[in-house]
Each structure stands twice: as C-alpha cells, then as structure tokens.
Amino acid sequence: MTEILQVRGLVAGYGAAPVLRDIDLTVPTGSIVTVLGANGAGKTTLLRTLSGLLRPTAGQILLDGKDLRRVKVERLVRLGMAHVPEGRGVVAELTVDENLRLGGLWRNDVNAAVAEVYELFEPLAQRKRNAGHLLSGGERQMLAIGRALVARPRLLLLDEPSLGLAPKITAQIMALLQKLRTQTGLTVLLVEQNARSALSVADSGVVMSLGRIATATTAQELRNAYLGS
Ligand code: ATP
C-alpha cells in the first residue's frame, strides 16, 4: 500500500517551546487514520502544521513523497490537501451555496463539484439558499466538510467534527466519511477527542500525549485498549 502522507521527526509550536515533539506519522492512501488524545495534547497543532498554517522548526512532511517545506499554503489545496478546522469556519452571512462555492473559486468545474456535494449531503441540497447561521450544528459540519470537498481533495484533514454534536448526528458524520472513502477513495486524517466515534470508522490511529505520539496501531487494537471492545 502506498502512503499519501508521511511525517518524519516533526517539531512545531507557537513560540520558543515546541508543542509538537518529534512526530512520526504515516497515512496510507485510501485509509481513515484517527488522531486521538486529551485536550491540549497537540492534535490541532498537528493539523495546522500539516496544512501549512504553522511552520515546522524541524522534520519533514511528504505528500505523495513530495516535501512540502517549500510549498506555499495556497498551493497545498491544489496538491490535494484540504483542512476542515475545528469550529468549522462556515461564513454565517453567506448562503449554503455561496459557502460551498468558496471551496473552489479557482476551479472552472465548480458547478459540478458543488452538485456532487449536494448529492452526498442531502440536507444541504434542501437548504441551498439558507444563510450559514440558520443551520444546525450537524448541517454546519456537513457544510464545512462539503466546502473542503469542492476543492476535490485526495487527503482531508478533519479537526473534531463531533464537537458539540449529538451522538446520532456524530454517527451520521462518521458514516459519511466512510461512504466518501468507499465511493471516492478519499483519505481522511481525523482528529477526535471522541475515541468511540472515531474508532468506529478508522482503520488505524495514533494517540497523542504532551505533543508526542504515545501509541500508533490498528483501530481494532485501540478499541481493545481504550474501549474494551
Ligand atoms: P484541543 O482538543 O483542546 O484542541 P489539542 O490536542 O488539539 O487540544 P492543541 O490545541 O494543539 O491541542 O494545543 C496544544 C498546546 O499548544 C496546548 O498546550 C496549547 O495551550 C498550546 N497552544 C495552542 N494554540 C496556541 C496558540 N495559538 N498560541 C500558543 N499556544 C497555543
């Protein structure tokens, strides 16, 4: 199996003291890999570094074997990486349709890409003209994911999609990720504090603690170790 993403010896942070310390991570193409860990373990910082928002002070990030150090942030989307940040980043004043279009402003096939998102996310199709602030939490999460998909990524970085959502809605979002992976071959790096939900769809995972990877193994082993099932 080939790896879409390889991270080696990654160090990054916000000031003098690093938050991420010597992170190694491999994400096989077409897999769902989850990043678990307590509040403050460094999960969000890892995603922000992978998507170019934070500059690493050491280490390598390889996307399809290509070193991203010299790649500009705005190029990363075109190279196939999309980031759905924690808190979703939906523009409240814009409609669902306008929010989706933002995901692919530079594309000449943006109409087709938006139409595909409506096929995947039926509730969004029914609310095309609604403003972002009128959506439920689950719909807003769908919109944030949908907007990332309009860029037609091959690797989706997803930060805590379950945050603030009812268990039933979280389960729907997880099922959607699985469907996307099966139907389109999308690779997902899924940051979650909700281990039970994440491990219900992941193939493998890592547990972060104090900015390091404490454990890296299959989802089954993580389920056995953390959930007893
Ligand atoms: P959470 O689930 O709360 O988002 P996390 O595992 O994603 O937790 P991070 O948000 O990556 O953890 O935070 C890791 C560490 O980095 C914490 O000690 C946090 O205080 C620190 N940190 C996060 N953002 C900043 C920032 N903008 N400036 C300085 N320090 C930060």
From TrEMBL:
Signal peptide limits: none
Protein name according to UniProt: ABC transporter ATP-binding protein
Question: Start and end of every ABC transporter domain?
Answer: 5-227
Q: InterPro entries under this entry? A: AAA+_ATPase, ABC_transporter-like_ATP-bd, ABC_transporter-like_CS, BCAA_Transport_ATP-bd_LivF, P-loop_NTPase
SUPFAM superfamilies, per database record: P-loop containing nucleoside triphosphate hydrolases
The UniProt keywords, alphabetically, are: Amino-acid transport, ATP-binding, Nucleotide-binding, Transport
The similarity comment for this entry is: Belongs to the ABC transporter superfamily.
